[in-house]
C-alpha cells in the first residue's frame, strides 16, 4: 500500500512539475507550435492564490516570481516631478443607458484627477467629418474629454473618418495613421485588428505613440455557457479552437508591430490592451526588442488590469523605448469598464546617457 501511495505521489509531483515547466516555457515558444502552453501558464496565474502543500513551496515561489509580479518591489524610477509626461491607456467599451450619463461624468472626473498628457483609448468609437471635427457618431464619453475645461485634442489624419483606438493629448499631435494588423473573414467586418500611430512633441523632441488592441479570445467563454458539459470533449473543442486562433493571431499581430518599431527613428511609446499577460510570447517579443514595461520596472503589487473587479491578470501595458526614463507606473482604481486603466509617468533620459538612442530625423 505504501508503495502504491509513493507512486501516486511521484506521479502527481511529476505532473505538477511538468505543467509548471510547460507554463514557464510559454513566453519562449512561438504560439504556432504550442499555443496551449499559454493556457497552462494562465492556470499558473490563477493558482497563485491557492495554499499549496509545503512540498511544493519552491515551485510556488518560482511561479509567483514568474507569473505574478515580475519585479515584486519595483525599481523605483524616482519621484514624479512637475512637467513629467503621464501616459494612460484604458479600454472603455460602449456603455448603455441609463448608466451612460453617470459613467461619462465619472470618466471625466477620473481623467481630470489623473491629468494624463497622452491618452490611448480602446473600443472608444470616434467619428470624424473628414476635416477633423467630431460628429454625432462619436461616443459621448470621448467627446466630453475634448470639451472645456479638459480640452483634449484628438489625433487626426486627412481623410480619416473613424477609429475605435483614438489618441488624445494635451501635447502637440501630428501624423496619425491607422494600419491593419490582421483581417479575418471578409464576411466578418468586426474581426479586424488595427494599430493607431500618432506623432507627438514633448519638451522640444518629437516621438511616436502606438495605440494597440490585439485580438481577444472573443465574447464566448466556457464559464458563461448556459449548459456546460465539463467532461464532454465536444463542449471544449470550439473553445480550444477559439483560443488557439487567438494566440496565433496575436503572434502575427505583434510581429507586424515589431516590424514597424524597427523602422522607427524617433523615441517610441507603445500602449494599449494586449490581451496577453507578462508570461506570454507577445510580451517577450516587445521586451526582448528593447521596450521597457513601465509597470514591470517601477510598479508595486500585481498591477492587474483585467477583470476590473478581480485581481486576475495584467493585460494592459505602457511600454517605452530606451530614450524614456520610467518614473512611475500604477493602476488607478476605476470601475467604468471590465478593464482598469494603466498610468505611467515618463521623462526624457539625458541625451548623453540614453543607451540605444534612436536618431530623431525622418
Brief rundown of the structure:
This protein is an alpha+beta fold. The protein has helices at residues 2-25, 31-34, 36-47, 57-68, 99-114, 140-146, 233-262, 281-288, 294-298; strands at 85-91, 118-122, 126-127, 153-154, 162-163, 167-169, 172-183, 192-202, 205-213, 268-273, 292-293, 316-320, 324-330, 342-348.
Keywords:
globular; Deoxyribonuclease I, Chain A; alpha+beta; 9 helices; 362 residues
What secondary-structure arrangement, pairings included, does this model have?
Blueprint lengths: L1 H24 L5 H4 L1 H12 L9 H12 L16 E7 L7 H16 L3 E5 L3 E2 L12 H7 L6 E2 L7 E2 L3 E3 L2 E12 L8 E11 L2 E9 L19 H30 L5 E6 L7 H8 L3 E2 H5 L17 E5 L3 E7 L11 E7 L14
Parallel strand pairs: 1-2, 9-10
Antiparallel strand pairs: 1-14, 2-6, 3-5, 4-6, 7-8, 8-9, 10-12, 11-12, 13-14
Question: Please, could you describe this protein's structure?
Answer:
The strands form 3 sheets. Strands 4-6-2-1-14-13 form a 6-stranded mixed beta sheet. It contains 9 helices and 14 strands. It has 362 residues and is of the alpha+beta class. The model is unreliable at 48-55 and 352-356 (pLDDT under 50). It has 2 domains: 2-68, no CATH class; 85-348, 4-Layer Sandwich (Deoxyribonuclease I, Chain A), CATH 3.60.10.10. Strand 7 and strand 8 (192-202) form a beta hairpin. It has helices spanning 2-25, 31-34, 36-47, 57-68, 99-114, 140-146, 233-262, 281-288, 294-298, and strands spanning 85-91, 118-122, 126-127, 153-154, 162-163, 167-169, 172-183, 192-202, 205-213, 268-273, 292-293, 316-320, 324-330, 342-348.
Amino acid at each position: 500500500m505504501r508503495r502504491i501511495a509513493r507512486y501516486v505521489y511521484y506521479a502527481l509531483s511529476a505532473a505538477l512539475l511538468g505543467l509548471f515547466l510547460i507554463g514557464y516555457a510559454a513566453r519562449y515558444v512561438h504560439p504556432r507550435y504550442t499555443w496551449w502552453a499559454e493556457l497552462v501558464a494562465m492556470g499558473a496565474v490563477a493558482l497563485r492564490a491557492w495554499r499549496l502543500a509545503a512540498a511544493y513551496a519552491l515551485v510556488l515561489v518560482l511561479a509567483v516570481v514568474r507569473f505574478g509580479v515580475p519585479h515584486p518591489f519595483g525599481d523605483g524610477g524616482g519621484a514624479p516631478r512637475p512637467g513629467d509626461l503621464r501616459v494612460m491607456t484604458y479600454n472603455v467599451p460602449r456603455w448603455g443607458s441609463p448608466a451612460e450619463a453617470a459613467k461619462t461624468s465619472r470618466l471625466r472626473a477620473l481623467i481630470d484627477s489623473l491629468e494624463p498628457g497622452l491618452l490611448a483609448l480602446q473600443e472608444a468609437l470616434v467619428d470624424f467629418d473628414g476635416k477633423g471635427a467630431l460628429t454625432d457618431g462619436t461616443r459621448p464619453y470621448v467627446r466630453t474629454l475634448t470639451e472645456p475645461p479638459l480640452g483634449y485634442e484628438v489625433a487626426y489624419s486627412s481623410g480619416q473618418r473613424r477609429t475605435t483606438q483614438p489618441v488624445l493629448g494635451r501635447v502637440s499631435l501630428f501624423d496619425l495613421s491607422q494600419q491593419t494588423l490582421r483581417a479575418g473573414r471578409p464576411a466578418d467586418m468586426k474581426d479586424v485588428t488595427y494599430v493607431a500611430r500618432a506623432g507627438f512633441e514633448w519638451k522640444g523632441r518629437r516621438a511616436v505613440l502606438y495605440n494597440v488592441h490585439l485580438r481577444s479570445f472573443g465574447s464566448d467563454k466556457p464559464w458563461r455557457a448556459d449548459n456546460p458539459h465539463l467532461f464532454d470533449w465536444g463542449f471544449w473543442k470550439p473553445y480550444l479552437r477559439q483560443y488557439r486562433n487567438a494566440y496565433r493571431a496575436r503572434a502575427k499581430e505583434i510581429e507586424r508591430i515589431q516590424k514597424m518599431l524597427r523602422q522607427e527613428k524617433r523615441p517610441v511609446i507603445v500602449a494599449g490592451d494586449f490581451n496577453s499577460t507578462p508570461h506570454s510570447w507577445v510580451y517577450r517579443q516587445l521586451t526582448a526588442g528593447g521596450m521597457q514595461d513601465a509597470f514591470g520596472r517601477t510598479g508595486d503589487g500585481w498591477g492587474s488590469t483585467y477583470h476590473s473587479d478581480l485581481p486576475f491578470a495584467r493585460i494592459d501595458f505602457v511600454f517605452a523605448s530606451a530614450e524614456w526614463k520610467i518614473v512611475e507606473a500604477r493602476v488607478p482604481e476605476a470601475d467604468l469598464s471590465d478593464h482598469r486603466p494603466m498610468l505611467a509617468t515618463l521623462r526624457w533620459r539625458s541625451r548623453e546617457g540614453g543607451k540605444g538612442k534612436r536618431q530623431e530625423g525622418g
